[in-house]
Amino acid sequence: MEKLKNYIYGEWVEGTGNGVPLYNAVTGEQVAVSDTEGLNFEQALDYGRTVGYKNLSSMTFYDRGEMLKKVALYLLERKKKYYELSYKTGATHADSWVDIEGGFGTFFTYSGLAKRMLPNTPFWVDGETQKISANGTFLGTHILTPSEGVSIQINAYNFPVWGMLEKLSTSLLAGVPSIVKPSPYGSYLTNAVFQDMIESGVLPEGALQLVCGEPGNILDYVQDGDSVLFTGSAHTGRKLKSMPSIAGNAVRFNMEADSLNCSILGLDAKPGTPEFDLFIKEVRNEMTTKAGQKCTAIRRIIVPEHLIGDVQNALSKALDQTKIGNPLSRETRMGSLVGKQQYDEVVRKVNILKSETELVYDGKHELVDADYDNGAFMSPKLFLNDKPFEKNISHDVEAFGPVSTLMPYKDAEEAAALAKRGKGSLVGSIISHDETFIAETSWKMASQHGRIFVLNRDNAKESTGHGSPLPTLMHGGPGRAGGGEEMGGLNGLHFFLQKTAIQGSPDVLKAITKVYQQGAEKKFSDKHPFQKYFEEVEVGDSLETAGRTVTDADIVNFSNVSWDHFYAHTDATSLTGTIFDKTVAHGYFILSAAAGLFVSGKKGPVIANYGLENCSFFKPVYAGDTITVYLTAKEKINRGVKGRNIPSGVVKWLVEVVNQRDEIVCVATILTLVAKQSPFIDLNVKNVQKILGGLTESAPTNWGKMSPQQMIEHLEHGVLVSLGEPEADKCFTPEEQLEKWQDSLYNHRKMPKDFPAPFLAEDETLLELKHKNLDAAKQSFLDNLQRFTVYYRENPQAEHMNFVFGKLNKEMWELMHKKHFTHHFEQFGLI
Q: Where is the Aldehyde dehydrogenase domain (predicted)?
């Protein structure tokens, strides 16, 4: 039987013991063996702290985000084999989708957040700069850096893929190396995904390690700077948290424990309302998805006392329709528990619940293509606690399977009180269309819940459901749920980051943070900052504008254009008792006038105004005052661009407007989209002619079989096709892939060197030569390139077919030629 290997100190290592046998939860057959005996855990942690930390922490947040995306794409291409393994854990296709592709989705989400919102530096400036001296020569701010340690991540058996990836999404993005310790049950699936993560070659050495089996004494070796993330039972979590190595070394500990989550049916949601039907569907889903093995599953069903019978009947009928059995069968809607050991534990808890509450539904016991003897199957079980304020067993005991308990309430006060008797939950839901009931109940129960999910007819179509934690929202809960906080968008990174206060002069803070600080030295040059590409802009690049004297006509005209007739701008007789001496210029006029002073009218790399932040007006500007503007590059944010957008980054500019007395009247931060420098040549004919001057008949090629003249005639043929001479009669790219290929024209990735022309047969040579020599070919090519420029000036709406990219317009043809010319000019070493 295959023994699962562990991945530590950069090697795949097999345990030296007998290990733990792992079984197919559906058939009972042995699948694999997990074994960690003989592993040197102390060495593993040290390897992560040294090699892993050095490699990961030196990457920028932006690059780590790109890393997550590449890993997720690599795994997505191989998802089929993960589904085949997931079925062996008892999961249906729908269960597996949540686990497998939900996990990949978490990586994609964090990649997107990083590329939109995090800096292209290994540290992260947190919050605004604080002025802590009268004259602004002494400032303070905070930076976040990766904690100098390793993260040990102990995951539960219910989500072998998502459980691993949701923790890694934040630790890897934060720059902290991790050791993954999955539950042995289902670890063969975790192992398969982890192998592919390593084989992708995307992760730096030491970033990840895998301990696939019993944890042994791994936690004995944690130290200050390390962190432990645990998902599992609250009892086990409390034991781990109190270990001397964790409690005594200030090791960061995050616990996400199972909890007795509830769902409340609103007083208004009577049978026949959309909310009643949604409630029944939601409870059934949460009882049967993953066979109830979810830390977010509904364990307590809180229902108006007069609707208990209706809910019990409707829920029983819905559960009757849920066929249980082999996940590979199309009929199956609920699979098995993860194994016999878990089955026995759920039965033990069910018997405890029976001691105080009535089992009112035990499900149908027929199985689809499976049997109870070999598999770990359990029918859904519904209990009724008729006195939930007296019988506490429902609020204390969790059966981690398809088991839930009905309980009645009288009013919103009671509903919230019952919700809180779970002593801390990951999630509670309210299903109602009564906003007053929802508001009153939700804020009263919020203190004992990590998430409150409200469902009704208004959001049902787009709702993700009671049991689905989302990457952009916190996953965790107080009290019994462990007090942990995972994900939550960028907040999830803070657990892995050290926050440090930085104090110093404006120039020192600028040097440390790479963000311009008011009062720091400005860098002036003859080149307008808006004429610089993203890569060329440096923090501190500045422009001092000419002055502009504000007139009464400016104030009147702006009032008329903007329709802002506020009395302070238009009525000098109404200013008594105000802060103004006379009619004052509009703040937004000052900002607009400032833009008019600092913008460059000439077309350049600045694509668009992206936004405005922190605009403040400090002093009034009256007619006769003269304003001058200082524009300074404050911060650069690299930006991932998809689709048909020009590759660009965001530059934040500090705008300081002063009057003739050098008093600051307005400060704002504007954001601009700034194009990145293209690696492809410009289509300017003189530029191309200059490049071709270096091409001779004997020029060697760096790849491919073309001769210099063949290359030139090949490019000329492409130009003629873009003019419709001749019109290409076919595109060889399948229709479903065409949009992706056209989008690729906009990015800065170069054309592949080994791409075969689709219009040529495998044994066919390039087009026959039509010019007498290379010089003639060059001249004809240049003449047609000039024709191309003129043609699209005269016919800007023209479109012509391309063999690979389909029908292209003027912009797309220009992008295609730039890439194509660059590709072949590099082939012959011309650029």
A: 12-499
